[in-house]
Every structure is written in structure tokens, then in C-alpha cells.
Design a protein that fits this description.
Blueprint: H1 11-18, E1 22-23, E2 26-27, H2 42-50, H3 67-71, E3 79-85, E4 88-93, E5 96-100, E6 134-136, H4 147-154, E7 165-168, H5 172-177, E8 185-188, E9 193-196, E10 199-204, E11 224-228, E12 233-236, H6 245-253, E13 258-262, H7 276-286, E14 292-295, H8 309-321, H9 345-352
Parallel strand pairs: 5-6, 6-7, 7-8, 12-13, 13-14
Antiparallel strand pairs: 1-2, 3-4, 4-5, 9-10, 10-11, 11-12
Helix pairs in contact: 6-7, 7-8
Amino acid sequence: MSEANLVEPGRRERRIEASPRFKNGRFRNTHPTKMMREPFDSSMALDFLAGSAARSPRAPLPIFEHSLRALSSPPDGGLRLTWLGHSTVLVEIDGVRLLTDPVWGNRVSPVSFAGPKRFHPPPIALADLPPIDAVVLSHDHYDHLDASTVKSLARGASPGFSGRFITALGVGAHLERLGVRPESIVELDWGEGEKVGSVDVVATPAQHFSGRGAFDRNRTLWAGMALLGPRHRVFFSGDTGPTDEHADIGASLGPFDVALFEIGAWHPAWGDIHLGPSAAFESFERVRARALLPVHWSTFDLGLHPWEEPAEELFRIASEKGAPLWTPLLGKPTEPASALMQPWWRDVLSLSR
């Protein structure tokens, strides 16, 4: 049993207090961070009011129809990623299956009857997932830690799931309230790791924030996650703004076969805590990854931009620089040898006209 998940009264609180990132009752980023780089002004209000129709697709998003058949056999080369929407990715790496930030709920909100609603159904039902060795959770925001999904997983909705959750320091308290057994939870500070089979899951710095209510801002940590196998390496950014710590991650843990970086649900005014497509590409270069798979877009309306804009802008940047960009259909298992730059969102836009 990892030291990070010993079940002992008061242990979580002691570990939080001992973290270098925890000061005066709150976690902090390494560098001073503004939640808003500029005040909410008339131009931002116009983005909010005038652009609402473009923030959601007007035609159904294409979903790969043969996911289960493709997932029934192991990846040929030992690495395969299946993007299931937003920041949920099934990562098959060197014989281990990991699931990042699983969200199967219909809304990402404190309540089930209001809040951002998903654009598309989950490409694979929870019950149809292949056996999962561990869930990897980056932080506690509603679009990453989905209460209904965690409850379902804790009740055994996904046969073959080990029940194991690996997350950032403090987030385990939420999981316990949602029915996860304390002994199944591993909480990591930045730089700490946990072994899952042959793969090391290492929490890495991110520049973001946390909280699920009005009074718990930054009471839990946020993190990226490096997935380090004997033959392959994958980097998952979680939610983050641009930070020079990505270069440190690349130098110490890279190079990576593929990096998953958030590109959507952003605005230039939020540049300290989210990336957007341009900063995501720069961060991808900093972590020394061979390929980029964009996440955190096309599932929920959480920003002020047209739903496809982040992908289109990233596609342009990657094309100009000749960089390998993976843009698979939702639910399509993808291996490095078969990865394509496929601008599938353009077909959705053409159907909407």
C-alpha cells in the first residue's frame, strides 16, 4: 500500500499541512496567478450574449461506431488512446488501462437540472468499458470530477474496474463522500507517484485552482499527470495555464509519446488558468512530446468561443509547423501508427449551414 493512501485518522489533513504548496489554509500555484487578466467588460459581455448560438453544435457530432470491437484486442504497439469527450481519455499503455477525469453525466454542475449540458452522448457506456486498472483525476471541478460518474463507478457500474482512484492531494475527501472506499484512494502532491502495474503515475505541477462551492476555493490541489511505462510515456495536462514548469516536466520526465493538453473552454482574459490552442501548442513543445491530442473541448459549453474554434485554430498552428496532431473521432481508439489530423468538426459545420 502506498504511503499516500494509508487509511489513518487525520492523515489527509497532516499531508495537506505539510505540502509546500499549502499556505494559510489554501493551496497556491508556484507563480502569482490572476483568475482574470482583465475585468469583465463590454466586449466580454458581447462575447457572452452575441455568441451563444455558436457555442453549441447545431448538428450531431460524429461518434466512432466500432469502439468496443476495436478495444477487444490489445494495442499492436503497446499504446492506444481513446478520447471519450472533454478530458476523459482511456489510455492503454504497456499493458495497463487508465481512465482520465471520467465524466458520463449529462451536466457539469452542482445540480442535475441546470448547468452546461453535454453536446453528445458518451461514446461508450460505463458498463461497456474494458477493465480499468485505475481512474486518474486531475482536480475537483465539476467538469472533471463528476459526482454521478464517481458514484456509479463506486457501485460497480463498470465491471472489471479495480475501484482504484489516483488524484491530487485533498480530492480524496470528495471521493469518499461519493462512496469510494478510503483504501482505494491515492492522493498525490506534485512530484509524488503511484505504481499501477508497470506504469508510474506521477503528479506534476499545473497552474489552475480548485473548488466545488462558494467556500472551498483552493482547499484541494490540482495537478497534471505523467503516465510513465517501461516503453511509452503519456502526459495529461489536467486544467492549467501556461507555465515554465512544463519545460521542467519535459526535462525530467519526458520525452512523451503523446501529450493531452486542454484547448477549449477558455478566453484570453483567463490566460493564467487556461491555455487555449496557441498556448497549448507552446506547452506541448515544452514538455517534449512527439504528438498532441487536444482535450477539454466539444463536449460542454464552458467558454465564450464557438465550439469548434479551439480545434480549428490548433489545426492551423500544427499544420503550419508540421507538427503531429491527433484529432480522432469521439470514441475512436487511436494508436500512433494510425493517428490522423482529421478536421471532422468541419463536416458538422457544413451540416449546420
